[in-house]
Amino acid sequence: MTRSGAFSILDYWGLKASPFPMRPALDSVTSTPSQEEALARMEFLVHNRGSGGLIVGAAGTGKTLLLALFAELIRPVAETYRFSVVGLDDVTLIARLAEATGMKPIPSRNPLRLRQTIEARFAAAAYQGRPWVILLDDIAEASPKIAVALTYLSHLRWDAGPAPLLFVAARHATLHRVPRQCLDLLDLRIDLEPWEEDGVQTYLIQRLQAAGQDDWQAVFHAEAMHRIAALSRGIPREVNRLADLSLTAAAGANVRPIDAETAQAVFDELYPGNERKRPLRESTAKQWEIRVQ
Fold first, then answer.
1. pTM of the full predicted structure?
2. Are 181 and 163 within one domain?
């Protein structure tokens, strides 16, 4: 879409900014009760010297966003390091962490030198009273050898200070691929669930208000919100996508407010024959196949 086209759509709906960006800036994220609860539980672990937490949710429920928000939240009181660990093994993760602490890259990835650097940086931070918080996304997509690195990090100590706090994120469907050794290092599980219908409606209204439109009924018919909640199954990424594309489709068709038929047409175009990636919700039995005590 051209810049002028984007502005014309915003003008059509009386908006000052796009209300449903797929990658929102962290300072413009609309918080939700489930997100706030997850952040509070993660912060509790930091202040009470927990060992770490496992964040679990279906694709699109906001695991990556939660890690990013928490990194910003805790940065004033802790050294935070956040990575996607897709394809990483133990040595590569330690090398990435060493570089993130300010160490120049080591072409040979000498494990001994890497660990010496990690231990020196960790001791310096601990001396200043700043614990380490390490946030690892897509843990199920890493090499099983990553368990070696996590075990090593969990045993780092300086004086009487806490070990690095580890948070790892995975999808329900891939949780069985996470090494048991990794899960045993963690003491809290946080499940990110899809939103209920009222949660979807609240989110849509809040995002419109944040973008400068206080009259949500001028944008969405109540039935359109109901349809978006049903079609998205409460998955935040899908809610955003359907709402954003519905704004464009309705403006193009000169429909105001957005009706349920427009939202349905957008969905049908995105997923011909209603073929879409599943599962977004797993059965309770599968969710709890692996537990973190």
1. 0.84
2. yes
